[in-house]
Write a structure and sequence with these properties.
Length: about 425
């Protein structure tokens, strides 16, 4: 059953599963997904104690944070209560539980507003904004980031104001509001220019500005912004920037239909990628470049590598994007059963409680595949459902929206740099 307490067990079964060799070498192997893999039931028996210990450790940390928060409230120390709630927020966010993370961030905000620490109040609003973005609750998240920006600006908290501006830009960018996103990124750069030293937020802001400009077709301007980001990161000696910069250049060349250069840059990005999520994101960008260049089989192979990384690394929320690309590739090959991959993506979104924007993107790709197959009525129904969800989310439903879908910009590094306090 789909129960939250069984999620670690199911995740273990999926992560340790293997492809069905008989199916892999048959025609149906092209349409295989995570649901078609073979699980190791005997291996689960031996892993139960480890899984239980891990969950107990997680729960123990949450209970400790709860006790710390309660004692702090009772002692009239709202600042300490907010920090305890933020610690719990980080635990749930790291566990890829955005709804739970939002609940803790909300508790942190409620305590922080009772304190006199403005930097902490801003941080709490930023974390709740980030959690709400992950849940695709855009209007609420936008208000949180705006409030954080106001608080940090009022007390000359440069890093906090810059992070809030970048977070606001990321959020409205998700909604396809490119002009507003650009204004927020430029505001971040303006705030940062008032400081005495350069920090990683400087290249973050320039990189985000590049994404917006490139997505709007302003390729010359976006190249200049990317050069700024690259130069600042180099001056800072920030090695963490390498994968983001190389990925961005790959995306830029892809926008110019310079496929060989795009593929070369994305291979470089993959070579310096750190972290499972970033590696999967870059692999999917590479698969996109290969698909657009006509190398369909190579694109499928790269997407399957991303699928394997997501399964082994237990980042199952990235699988719907994998199945969107595999579905498109199958559709381009004229496979009449390409719909199976889109349906699997939709099932995963439901089972995992993923943000509604993932369902929208999958419905759009599914509709394109159905239209290409001559299934016009089905395509129209899928697009109508996508438009309805767009309206519920307040997101623009034009062709521009998907432009930043595969940006390698993990939230915790770009709009969530942790404050030392």
């Amino acid at each position: 059953p789909s129960l939250d307490e069984l999620r670690p067990v199911v995740d273990h079964l999926v992560a340790t599963s293997r492809p069905d060799d008989d199916r892999a070498w048959s025609g149906s192997g092209v349409l295989a997904s995570v649901g078609d893999r073979l699980v190791d039931a005997k291996g689960l028996e031996g892993a139960l104690e480890t899984l239980l210990e891990r969950e107990q450790e997680h729960l123990r940390a949450l209970y400790r944070a709860t006790a710390d928060a309660v004692m702090a409230v009772q002692s009239g120390r709202p600042e300490d209560a907010a920090r305890a709630c933020l610690n719990a927020f980080e635990l749930e966010e790291a566990g890829d539980r955005p709804q739970r993370a939002e609940a803790w961030a909300d508790a942190a905000v409620r305590s922080a507003i009772e304190s006199s620490n403005d930097e902490l109040r801003s941080l709490a609003f930023r974390r709740r904004g980030r959690a709400r973005r992950a849940c695709a609750r855009y209007p609420e998240g936008e208000r949180d980031y705006a409030r954080a920006y106001e608080i940090s600006s009022a007390v000359n908290d440069i890093q906090g104001a810059a992070e809030a501006a970048i977070g606001s830009g990321n959020l409205v960018e998700d909604e396809g509001r490119w002009a507003e996103a650009e204004r927020w990124y430029r505001r971040a750069l303006e705030v940062l220019s008032s400081g005495d030293t350069r920090t990683s937020e400087h290249w973050h802001a320039w990189l985000n500005l590049h994404v917006v400009q490139r997505s709007r077709g302003q390729l010359e301007e976006s190249a200049s912004a990317l050069e700024q980001a690259e130069g600042i990161a180099s001056d800072l000696g920030d090695e963490a920037a390498h994968m983001f910069i190389e990925n961005a250049w790959g995306q830029w060349h892809l926008a110019r239909s310079e496929y060989a250069d795009a593929i070369d840059r994305l291979h470089r990005a993959l070579g310096v990628a750190v972290g499972t999520r970033a590696r999967i994101t870059i692999r999917m960008n590479l698969a996109e470049a290969l698909l657009r260049s006509g190398r369909r089989l190579d694109a499928v192979e790269e997407a399957r590598r991303a699928e394997r990384d997501a399964i082994v690394g237990r980042t199952f929320g990235q699988l719907p994007e994998v199945y969107r690309l595999l579905g498109r590739a199958a559709s381009e090959a004229g496979n009449p059963d390409a719909f199976v991959l889109f349906e699997r993506g939709l099932d995963l979104i439901t089972d995992r409680g993923l943000p509604a924007i993932e369902r929208v993107r999958t419905l759009e790709a599914y509709a394109g595949s159905e239209r290409a197959a001559g299934e016009i009525e089905s395509a129209d129904q899928l697009m109508n459902e996508a438009r309805r969800l767009y309206e519920e989310l307040g997101v623009r439903s034009d062709d521009e929206h998907g432009g930043a879908e595969r940006e390698s910009r993990p939230d915790r590094q770009i709009d969530g740099v942790e404050d030392d306090d």
